[in-house]
């Protein structure tokens, strides 16, 4: 009988390849599918001998694999003609035996690799929606794997296809997660999928794990293939508009079923665990894990953004502003830095330039976090060197992303907002003892002279704020409730901004690492700010008859004159002469700027020599 079915299957396949008329092709296609499915419906044989019945199913499915072989002209034609309807039937065999699993996956792969990816996307999604039930979850495994192949072949509008697929995929993940989170911990015999070969028993836990793993792999394929999609939540859902994307609501409701806490995602506690869970320790490289971490952080940031700015999502995620603030208070600076890192992941796309629509949400989230923590107080232990050194390394990437907004954002308002957030992070989150080192590291790696200038101005403000009070001021009653200011007032805390470390920062601008004068006129902004900072400290120390920074020592005055000011004066003279030979408007404006800078250099030299003469 099995041979008869095989012969009839071959006959139906031949007619499918030959028929051109729509009605004829429809009839021959249905005959092929009926012949393929007929062993499954042979209940009489199954009752008489399950072994013979299974052998017949495997034989017919193996014949289908041979007939669909894309290396043969007839096989390729058959794939194209019956591909839309075949997946729904082929996956019915997947739970019978290991051989049936292999044959079924082979059919799905042949269809995904050789038929139109758009048509197979529709066919796989139709079948996926049909089998997204607790009883037929196992049938979805080869379909998700087929979708991964399809997405890798799509050349256009990948983001749109992924959005269309997300509803079905989210429903599938939800079903798997809900089943897995059931009250019963031990699986009963009813919770297994028994292979008819007697050697292949699948627990529903294994099926659910395979579903989740395959969808994770599908998401990775989409991330690698699509320029506009950034993971399951992805940047695509962060489109402009006030309405919440459906996928965001679905994901917010899904988080608890996946054992994920939005609050723990915000502070980064669960992101590392997720990366380790979805990474192959042998084949996954460090860069791959870092990319996964960035994408996971973006997804977490978007989930938090919608939670904070939409009541529907907040209710679905069971999160309030109060609960977020409590978590940040409990986690201290480390948790706040981690939360800012997650939020700042939205500030960059695939280049250093911020994506305007997504960066706006990232900035809003950063601002909200900073507002929530503005009233928090920190333990003085956070000021200790062994604690803040690691914190500085964690906060630097966030500050660099905010820098990118200041430099590359498309509009002035976003640049202003980015710099305001940068200042708040420096002044409200980074410990006092770590701020100068943090700014020094940023200055060393910064390619924008204008941004270096802003950092130097910020250092000047910090110096003015931290400057020790005069003896008369120390006798006055303390009216500042800030305990750190009280420590500064009493002289119990030595700020790095009131030390010779500040001179090192100035020197890194006026005399770069290569020992040559700065590149002018390109770095004119940073050089002028460095000179103004030097002059500010020199005047403050000499007028107050103090030397907190060491700037008034003979060695420091001599070094500044010989290594900074005199070489810079000579260099400016040469640049000025060169600009005089050019008659265009831009050169004239630059020559004026160089003249102004020269006047600042001369004033610094005069002050330096006056102070030196008084020693």
From TrEMBL:
It comes from the Eukaryota. PANTHER family: GLOMULIN. The gene is LOC112273555. It holds the Pfam family Kinetochor_Ybp2. This is Aberrant root formation protein.
